[in-house]
Design brief:
Length: 484
C-alpha cells in the first residue's frame, strides 16, 4: 500500500498569540489550503464559501481578520468588503484574488482593506505574516480604545484662560476638516493631547490614533518604520507594513517632525502629496487614507530659512497651524490644573486639598517644563505629603523666581480662594460662577460672557448650584456682599 503524498512543508512563522480568522472563498481547495497554511500559528480559522455562510462569524465580536476573495460565486467581494468596514470597522480585511492588478489593489485599499494577496500563494510565509500583522493592528486599535476608555471620556485641555479657550474653539471648528495640521509649542505643553483631541473630534475617531516620536527614530530605520519594508529588503527583514499603513483610516501623529532628516523629508512630502507609500524593497506604492498631525517645539519657519527643513514640506504640513501657549503665559490656569492632577493622582487614604502658600508657590514658578512639569511636581508632592492638605514644604520646587509676580498677585490671577475648596470640580465650578458674578456686578449676561458660555448654559449651572437669576440680576444663595 503506497503512502499518501507528502504535504509541502510549511515554514515556521512569527511567534505570536493566536487570532480569530475568517476565510471567505468559493473554491473549497483553496479554503483547505489556507487552513493548512495558518494551522502552525494555532489561529482559530473558520471557512465559508459564501457571504451567507460567513454571516454568523462576521457578527462574532472576537473576530480579528477576514481573508476575502474578490470574486465569489454570485457575489461581489468588494460589496462584502464595504459592508464589513461599515458594520465592523475594527475587523481587518485581507483581500485575496487571482486577478491581481494595481487598479483592484487601489480600490481595496480605498475601501479599507489592510493588505492584498494574489493567488496562487507561492510565498506561504507572506500569507502568514500578513495575517499576523493584520491581527496585531486589530489588537493595537482595541488596546488604544481600551486605554482611552479607562482614562475617561475624550481627551480634554484643562484651563479657562483666553488662549486655551481659543485653542479649544479652533479644534472644534476643525471637526469636519480633513487637512493636515501642524502643532507648535514648547516641550510639555500638551501637543499629543491636542493631536488626540483633533482625532477624537474628527470623522476618523473610529480609526487608530498612531503616535510616533520622530526624534527617537535612528536615521537608518526611519523610512522602514514609517513606510514599512518587504521581506528580504535588508538582512533579517521579515516584512512590516509601516506606521503609515497601521494608521489607515485614522490619524498619524508625527511628534517632533523637525527632527526628520532632509533626505527623508522628500519622501514624506511625496507620501502626503500623492497619498501613497512605497515600502523599502517594494516594486510599487500602496495607497493610504490617513490624516497627518505633526508637532514640533522648533521654529520650522526659521529652519526653512536656514535650509534645515524643506519649504514645500513645511507648507504641506502647515495647512492648519495650532499654537499651544506655555504655562507661564496662562498662569491663571494653574489652580484648575492643580485640582485636575490632585484628582488624577489621588491617594487611597482620602482626598487631598492644597494650602494657600503651596498654591502661591506653584503660581510663582516659571515652569520651564510646562504642564508636564506641573503634573510631575503634584505627583511627587502627593507621595511626600502627610495629612489631608498639601503644603508648600511638600513641593519639590523652590520659592518664587526673581522678578516673578508677588505671591498674592499671582494667586489673585488664578483665584487664590480655589486653594481652600475641597477636592471637587463641582466646588470649582461654583467658585467660578460666583467669581464671574462678582466681576460682572451681578449681571448674568456679562458673567456668562466672561465664562465663555451661553446664557442658557449659565442659568442651568446657577440652578444646579442653588443659585437663582431674575431677569438679568442674580439673587438666591449668593452672598450679596460677595457680589458687591
Amino acid at each position: 500500500m503506497s503512502s499518501p503524498p507528502a504535504r509541502p512543508a510549511v515554514p515556521p512563522g512569527p511567534a505570536t498569540r493566536p487570532g480569530f480568522v475568517l476565510v471567505v472563498d468559493d473554491e473549497p481547495l483553496l479554503l483547505r489550503a489556507l487552513a493548512r497554511i495558518l494551522a502552525p500559528d494555532r489561529h482559530r480559522v473558520v471557512l465559508a464559501e459564501t457571504p451567507a455562510e460567513a454571516e454568523e462569524t462576521l457578527a462574532d465580536p472576537a473576530l480579528d481578520v477576514v481573508l476575502l476573495d474578490l470574486r465569489l460565486r454570485g457575489a461581489d467581494g468588494l460589496d462584502l468588503l464595504d459592508w464589513i468596514k461599515r458594520e465592523r470597522p475594527e475587523v481587518e480585511v485581507v483581500v485575496i484574488t487571482g486577478h491581481a492588478s494595481i487598479e483592484s489593489a487601489v480600490d481595496c485599499m480605498r475601501q479599507g482593506a489592510f493588505d492584498y494577496l494574489a493567488k496562487p500563494f507561492d510565498d506561504v510565509h507572506r500569507v502568514r505574516t500578513t495575517v499576523q500583522k493584520a491581527i496585531e493592528r486589530r489588537r493595537l486599535v482595541a488596546r488604544n480604545r481600551e486605554l482611552e476608555a479607562r482614562l475617561g471620556s475624550r481627551p480634554e485641555l484643562i484651563g479657562r484662560s483666553p488662549a486655551i479657550r481659543r485653542l479649544v474653539r479652533t479644534i472644534e471648528s476643525l471637526r469636519h476638516n480633513e487637512s493636515h495640521v501642524l502643532i507648535q509649542g514648547e516641550s510639555g505643553t500638551g501637543k499629543e493631547l491636542v493631536a488626540r483631541m483633533l482625532h477624537e473630534t474628527s470623522r476618523r475617531r473610529g480609526g487608530p490614533f498612531v503616535p510616533v516620536d520622530c526624534g527617537a527614530l535612528p536615521e537608518s530605520v526611519i523610512e522602514s518604520e514609517l513606510f514599512g519594508h518587504e521581506r528580504g529588503a535588508f538582512t533579517g527583514a521579515v516584512g512590516a507594513p509601516g506606521l503609515f499603513r497601521v494608521a489607515e483610516g485614522g490619524t498619524l501623529f508625527l511628534d517632533e517632525v523637525g527632527e526628520i532628516p532632509l533626505a527623508m523629508q522628500a519622501k514624506l512630502l511625496r507620501a502626503l502629496q500623492y497619498k501613497e507609500v512605497r515600502a523599502v524593497g517594494a516594486a510599487a506604492p500602496v495607497p493610504v487614507d490617513i490624516r497627518v498631525v505633526a508637532a514640533t517645539h522648533r521654529d520650522l519657519a526659521a529652519m526653512v530659512e536656514t535650509g534645515r527643513f524643506r519649504m514645500d514640506l513645511y507648507y504641506r504640513l502647515h495647512v492648519v497651524r495650532l499654537e499651544i501657549p506655555p504655562l507661564r503665559e496662562r498662569i491663571e490656569d494653574v489652580p484648575l490644573l492643580v485640582q485636575h492632577f490632585l484628582a488624577k493622582h489621588a491617594r487611597s487614604d482620602g482626598p487631598i486639598t492644597i494650602e494657600q502658600d503651596a498654591l502661591e508657590r506653584l503660581m510663582s514658578h516659571d515652569w520651564p517644563g510646562n504642564v508636564r512639569e506641573l503634573e510631575n511636581v503634584i505627583e511627587s508632592a502627593l507621595a511626600l505629603a502627610r495629612g489631608p492638605r498639601l503644603r508648600a514644604a511638600d513641593l519639590p520646587i523652590g520659592r518664587s523666581r526673581a522678578g516673578a509676580a508677588p505671591p498674592q498677585t499671582a494667586a489673585r490671577a488664578g483665584e487664590a480662594a480655589l486653594a481652600q475648596l475641597p477636592l471637587s470640580l463641582e466646588a470649582y465650578e461654583r467658585s467660578a460662577l460666583e467669581r464671574a458674578l462678582r466681576e460682572a456686578g451681578g449681571n448674568a449676561t456679562d458673567a456668562a460672557r466672561r465664562l465663555g458660555i451661553g446664557r442658557s448654559t449659565f442659568y442651568r449651572k446657577l440652578g444646579k448650584h442653588g443659585l437663582r437669576a431674575h431677569d438679568d440680576t442674580v439673587s438666591g444663595l449668593v452672598d450679596p456682599a460677595r457680589i458687591g
